[in-house]
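Quiz preparation item.
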């Protein structure tokens, strides 16, 4: 055994939120944004770190995502995450499903997804369920605030009047 290993620091785990996998969410149900580390090489506003020590979202001061269970119309399940927020609106919690082929976003802000992106997302969802919608979701990490759960009917974005629109397929 290397005697210096006793004094070495554990490896610092940092990932981009859009690269998280199901295995990452199994390792830690909560991932905190590293906003205080943005100036470090290779890190930006999408960099997250695991917070396996956190058992309740409301215990964190910073911004984070939390493991969420998604149930498809046919009863099949998948996992992903929602952003911790003080309100349960799509723009605030931005649900994301993690599939073996990659992540599927449901909130697109002011820029609606194009047809190619919708088709790719539906392809990823079909690896889990041939009939995904409606998709129910429920955050698996407790919070003192409102429960983070709801239902998705498609892919959402704001229109020019800042009203939420849904693209159904």
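Solution:
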């Amino acid at each position: 055994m290397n005697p210096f290993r006793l004094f070495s620091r554990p490896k610092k785990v940092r990932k981009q939120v859009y690269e998280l996998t199901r295995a990452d969410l199994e390792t830690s149900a909560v991932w905190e944004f590293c906003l205080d580390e943005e100036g470090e090489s290779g890190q930006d506003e999408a960099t997250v770190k695991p917070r396996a020590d956190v058992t309740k979202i409301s215990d964190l001061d910073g911004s984070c995502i939390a493991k969420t269970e998604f149930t498809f119309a046919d009863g099949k399940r998948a996992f992903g995450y929602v952003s911790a927020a003080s309100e349960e609106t799509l723009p605030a919690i931005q649900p994301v499903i993690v599939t073996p082929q990659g992540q599927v976003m449901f909130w697109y802000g002011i820029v609606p997804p194009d047809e190619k992106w919708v088709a790719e997302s539906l392809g990823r969802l079909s690896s889990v369920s041939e009939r995904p919608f409606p998709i129910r979701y429920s955050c698996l990490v407790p919070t003192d605030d409102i429960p983070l759960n709801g239902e998705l009917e498609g892919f959402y974005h704001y229109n020019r009047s800042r009203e939420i629109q849904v693209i159904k397929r």
